[in-house]
Every structure is written in structure tokens, then in C-alpha cells.
TrEMBL record:
Subcellular location: Secreted
Major localisation: secreted
Protein name per the record: Hemolysin-type calcium-binding repeat-containing protein
GO CC term, one of those recorded: extracellular region
Keyword Zinc-finger attributed: no
UniProt keyword list: Secreted
GO molecular function: calcium ion binding
Claim: Magnesium is one of the keywords in the record: no
Length: 513
């Protein structure tokens, strides 16, 4: 082993030997140093020095600014302490430390470990590289080929300078971690990307895992079946192609599922969600959300606020929970269930099924042969066009069949409902689920043909349910009261008269003709 020491030297070329050399250049600068063969140890203290390690597992150190270090062959340890240095690992599994700032680092071939500093540009190149940029500057990091792990710290925590890192994973299954105000590109492969606050994350190709915490982030899943998480801020998320899983919480997030069968959860804020193409599953809770299912057979669950939901194209399944929701089924044969009260539902085109279980709900079937049910009190149901089935099981409900041959069903105990537009010859009434205390009210003006037809309609009801107490039909100044023929008790007050062929008990001030 040769040992070479220079106390004062500048603008010189220093060759090593074929064995492992120890070379120290203590002063001067602008020197060119060759290690050649063997495991060399070279220490250059001056500025603007250039070091070639050559073959062997070398340890090369450049102490001052603007140095250039080449590891070449072997598993080298390369140190650049001065600023503005360039370091090239070459072949082998190299360990590179560049701490001066404004450095340019190439890992080269092999599985390299690289640590940069402020305002550095680092290329991992080939191999499974471990790259760290802990400084306070604006770093640009390229993973290159291989399964790389890249970490850039959030230096904005410690000072006024932002980290502003730009990280490229490129090929391979990369682990990329950045601080605030960073831009991260996964590239090809199944990458894991994370950043904190006001960052841009781009998954690229592959099935990526992407997470952003805090701040206003912009996330692109791009191709592949991606898993995306955005917490604690107001993020914008594009799932891209593939069957993506998106979870957003804690802020007013904007989410686009785009293509594929996506699963989207938006919690804790006033979120806006576009399912996009595909059969999407959307869960929105904790705020006042706006959800568009768009194309495909979507499943949408909206809770926790007064939400607005558009099913879009396809046969959608929609749940509106906690009340005050506005739901549009739009195209397709949709199944819609609202609860909590004071919701409004438009079935739209298609043969829709709508179940309303809250008080004060308003349901519009619109086009198609719809099945519409209201079990809460004071609900209003409009069938619209088509042969609809309208069912009331609550109290004080109003049923409006609209166009078509509609079926009105009055079910449940102590149910009193109003049928607003019964048309004889077209519409039907069923009390199949009725019980004692069930009543239906209609007026002659609501029945095609006047009072005589109103009486005929009411008379036709009997025989279908012996538990029905009575049906009352008002026809002008006269009324028609029909009981079930059982042991019913009818009480009338005022100046009344009753015409009938059979009765059991009449109580009150009445005249029987």
C-alpha cells in the first residue's frame, strides 16, 4: 500500500498505484487525483479537485467546494462536503454523502445509498437505491430504474424556506416520501408516495399507494388500481384509470373517480365527488356533500348533512340518510331510499323504486313505471308518467298518480291518506295491508265522472279487507259513507242524514231516511 501526502499542492495530477493507496492533498486546489486499482482512500481538501477512484472499493472525500468525484468500479464510499460538487457512483453498491448544497449526484449502477443536502439534484439511476434529502432547499430527486426508496424531509418546519422537493420514482416499485410543498412522480411500477401539505403527487403507471396529510394537495392516481388517502386538508384527487380506492377526510375535498370501478369515501367535510365511468361505490358522511355518480351502476350512501346526489346514467342504488337530502336518480332503473325527513327525490327516467321513511318527504317518480312508497307522516308522492305503484303507510300522506294506470296502496294501522287524482277506469286502489283505523279520502272532483262514479269506486273496495273501518267519498253537497259491513260504529255530529240499507249502530244527532 502506498501512502502519499501533499501539504501544499495545486493544479497537479496525482496518480495512485496498482495497490490500495492512501492519498491526502492538504492544501491547494484544481488537482486531478487517480486511485487506479486497489481499495484506495483519497482525501482532497482544496477547491475544484477531481478524484477518480478506479477499481476497488474506494473511500473518496472532497472537503471543499466545486469538487468532482468518480467512484467508478467497486462498492465505493463517496463524500462531498463542499457545495456545488458533482458525484458519480459508477458501478457497484455505493454510499454517497453530499452535504454542501447545490450538489449533483448520480448513483449509477448498483444498489446505492445517497444522502443529499439543500438544493441538490440526485439521480439514483439503476438498482434499488435509498435516497434521502434532509436539507432545507429545493431538491430534485430521480429514483431511476429499480425499486427505490426516496425520502425528502419537511424542512419548512424549522425555518422560512420551504422544502419544495421534486421527486421522480421512474421505473420500479418505489417508496417516495416528501415534505410540504413537494412534487412527487411515481413513474412506472407499484409505487408508494407520501407528502405533507400543499404537495402534488402523481402515481403514474402501476398500482400505486398515495397519501397526503394536511394542506391543499393535488393527487393524480393515473393508470393502475390505486389506493389514495388525503387527510386533514382540502385536496383535489383524480383517480385516473383503473379500479381506485379513494379515502378523503377532514376537509372540503374534490374527488374525481374517472375510469374504472372506484370506491370513494369522503368524510368530515363538505365534499364534492364525481364517480366518473364505471360502477362506483361512494360513501359521503360528516358534511354537506355533493355527489355525482355519472356513468355506470353506482352505489351511493350520503349521510351527516343535507346532501345533494345525482345518480347519473346506469341503474344506481342511492341512500340518503339523516334528512334534508336532494336526490336525482336521473337515467336508469334506480333504487333510492331516503330517511331522516324533509328530503326530496326525483326518480328521473327509468323504472325506479323509491322508499321514503322520513316525515315531510316529497317524492317524484317522473318517467317510467315507478314503485314509490312513503312510510313517514305528511309525505307527498307524485307518480308522474307511467304506470306507477304508490304506497302510503304513514299518516296524512298525499298520493298523486299522474299520467298512466296507477295503483294506490293504503297500508298500515291508523293510516289516513289522500288520493288526489284517482281516475276511474284507469287507476286502482288496494287496502291489502290495511288494518283497523285505516281510511282513504277522496272527493268527487278527484274522481273522473263525478259523485256517482265516486260512490261506485268506494263500493268496489269492499270484500278486499274486512279490517277496513270506512271509506268516505264527498260528492258535491252530499257524501257517501261506506263501512265494511261488520260491527262498525259511526258517529256523526250536526244536521246529518244517512241513507242505507243496513247498519248496526248509529251514534249522534242523525236522521236516517
Amino acid at each position: 500500500m502506498a501512502e502519499i501526502n501533499y501539504e501544499t499542492l495545486s493544479d497537479q495530477t496525482v496518480p495512485g498505484s496498482e495497490v490500495g493507496d492512501t492519498i491526502t492533498i492538504a492544501a491547494g486546489g484544481n488537482d486531478l487525483i487517480y486511485g487506479f486499482q486497489g481499495d484506495d482512500s483519497i482525501n482532497a481538501i482544496g477547491e475544484n479537485d477531481t478524484i477518480y477512484g478506479g477499481q476497488g472499493d474506494d473511500t473518496l472525500t472532497a472537503q471543499n467546494n466545486n469538487s468532482v468525484v468518480y467512484g467508478n468500479l467497486g462498492d465505493d464510499t463517496l463524500n462531498a462536503y463542499g457545495g456545488g460538487s458533482s458525484v458519480f457512483g459508477g458501478q457497484g453498491n455505493d454510499s454517497i454523502y453530499a452535504s454542501g448544497g447545490n450538489d449533483l449526484v448520480f448513483g449509477g449502477l448498483g444498489n446505492d445509498t445517497i444522502q443529499g443536502s439543500a438544493d441538490s439534484v440526485i439521480y439514483g439511476n439503476q438498482g434499488d437505491d435509498l435516497i434521502t434529502a434532509p436539507g432545507t432547499g429545493n431538491d430534485v430527486l430521480y429514483g431511476g430504474q429499480g425499486n427505490d426508496t426516496i425520502t425528502a424531509s419537511d424542512d419548512a418546519v424549522y425555518g422560512t424556506l420551504g422544502s419544495d422537493n421534486v421527486i421522480y420514482g421512474n421505473l420500479g416499485d418505489d417508496l417516495l416520501t416528501a415534505g410540504a410543498d413537494s412534487t412527487v412522480y411515481g413513474g412506472q411500477g407499484d409505487d408508494t408516495l407520501s407528502a405533507t401539505g400543499n404537495s402534488v403527487l402523481v402515481g403514474g403507471y402501476g398500482d400505486d399507494s398515495i397519501s397526503a396529510t394536511g394542506g391543499t394537495n393535488l393527487i393524480y392516481g393515473n393508470q393502475g388500481d390505486d389506493s389514495i388517502s388525503a387527510a386533514g386538508g382540502a385536496s383535489t384527487v383524480y383517480g385516473g384509470q383503473g379500479n381506485d380506492s379513494v379515502f378523503a377526510s377532514g376537509g372540503a375535498n374534490l374527488i374525481y373517480g374517472n375510469k374504472g370501478d372506484d370506491s370513494i369515501s369522503a368524510l368530515g367535510g363538505d365534499n364534492t365527488v364525481f364517480g366518473g365511468q364505471g360502477n362506483d361505490s361512494v360513501f359521503a358522511s360528516g358534511g354537506t356533500s355533493l355527489v355525482y355518480g355519472n356513468k355506470g351502476d353506482d352505489s351511493i350512501y350520503a349521510a351527516g348533512g343535507e346532501n345533494t346526489v345525482y345518480g347519473g346514467q346506469g341503474n344506481d342504488l342511492i341512500y340518503g340518510v339523516d334528512g334534508g337530502d336532494l336526490v336525482y336518480g336521473n337515467k336508469g332503473d334506480d333504487a333510492i331510499h331516503v330517511s331522516g325527513g324533509a328530503s326530496t327525490v326525483f326518480g328521473g327516467q327509468g323504472d325506479d323504486v323509491v322508499v321514503s321513511s322520513g316525515a315531510g318527504d316529497v317524492v317524484y317518480g317522473n318517467r317510467g313505471n315507478d314503485v314509490l312508497s312513503a312510510s313517514g307522516a305528511d309525505a307527498t308522492v307524485y307518480g308522474g308518467q307511467g304506470d306507477d305503484t304508490l304506497t302510503a303507510t304513514g299518516t296524512n300522506d298525499v298520493l298523486v298518480g299522474g299520467l298512466g294506470n296507477d295503483l294506490f296502496q293504503i297500508n298500515g294501522a291508523d293510516t289516513t291518506s289522500t288520493i288526489a287524482d284517482f281516475v276511474t277506469g284507469n287507476d286502482s286502489i288496494s287496502f291489502a295491508g290495511g288494518d283497523a283505523g285505516t281510511a282513504a279520502n277522496f272527493t268527487a272532483a278527484q274522481v273522473s265522472g263525478g259523485a256517482d262514479d265516486a260512490a261506485a269506486v268506494a263500493a268496489a273496495l269492499f270484500g278486499s279487507n274486512t279490517d277496513l273501518d270506512y271509506v268516505f267519498v264527498a260528492g258535491g253537497s252530499d257524501g257517501y259513507l261506506f263501512t265494511d259491513g261488520g260491527n262498525s260504529e259511526v258517529t256523526l255530529t250536526g244536521d246529518n242524514s244517512i241513507t242505507g240499507v243496513s247498519y248496526n249502530d248509529i251514534v249522534g244527532g242523525t236522521t236516517v231516511a
